[in-house]
Amino acid sequence: MAPESAPWQPAREDFLAAQRRVAPYIERTPLLRARGLDRGAYRVFLKPECLQRTGSFKVRGAFNALAALPPEIRARGVITHSSGNFAQALALAARELGLAEQGKPYPCLVCMPEHANPIKVAKARALGAEILFAGVSSEDRKIKADELVAETGRALIPSYDHPDIVCGQGTMGLEILEQHAETKARLALVAGPVGGGGLLGGTAAALRSGGYAGVIAGVEPEAGDDFCRSLAAGKRVRIETPQSLCDGLLAVIPGAVTFPVLQKAGVRGVAVSEDAVKAAAAWLLNEAKLLVEPSGAVTVAAWRTGALDALLGGEKGDAVLILSGGNTDPSLVSGWTA
After folding, report:
1. Are residues 52 and 111 in the same domain?
2. pLDDT tier at 269 (50, 70, 90 boundaries)?
3. Buried residues in 155-174 as b, exposed as e (16+ CB within 10 A)
4. Where are the alpha helices (DSSP H) in 182-273?
5. Helix 198-209 vs helix 12-22: crossing angle, to nearest 10
6. Same domain, 313 and 270
7. pTM for this structure?
8. In the prediction, which pLDDT does 4 show?
9. How confident is the model at residue 3 (pLDDT cuts 50, 70, 90)?
10. Helix/strand/coil for 242
């Protein structure tokens, strides 16, 4: 029997290539001081991908993955499965790359859950995506997307579990290191939301490739703690379909590609309550003047509740909290209490 090949791991050159590839299409989001979150010797910075194009980090991976396809393949169109943010990101990438290369958008079909956020559905459609609703779980829409790939011959671009997606999302890690270096201070913690693992896997690996040796934390809702359980077990653990406000973090199992990347980067896991997420989103809206969806607010929830303290072990320095997206109804967040 042939030995199993080692899991894929990205190299620094992969992130640098992705950075060059996506630079013309994405925003270099700022690193913002959040003095209202400072505690003791810790200074806090926010990486607000809610200010990114389409309102989330997903455009980084979408543009990288689509641009990496041979032109004759992407011209046939692409298919993905998404709860909403990647749907918008891939639709934008298909439109802009298509217009640049053939004068019209590349076809983009997205399988979304039946209970998908209406705001995300409307925005994806406005960007040119064809939407097909498929079940309620991440696996339901993945199965349907695979069927459509077989029927249409279009290329499947997964929303997170693919090397090109991981490397595209990892461009955020490069930015964090470059931007924080300007402060001349020590960076002790980088925390980001973790669902399927594309965002934090890429960001963590890029941070490590740049020499960062501090703590990296993945934050998820208590109802969807597949990452924490998987870390504890040392292998990917499947859970029941989560019920949570954090619609972008409802994977039932960490990605087959992303989990080994997260493990090698030494990412730690914490989970937060729904009430903590609501309070964090309300704080961000009222105090930081940032509209952040529940999935993107989990890092601030973990910081405000002290859930990250045990990971720091007394190490002092700055903390960077990633806000992954802002596609939510402002009236919903404004009704919550910080």
Report:
1. no
2. very high
3. bebbbbbbbbbbbbbbbbbb
4. 198-209, 226-233, 258-264
5. 120
6. yes
7. 0.95
8. 64
9. low
10. coil
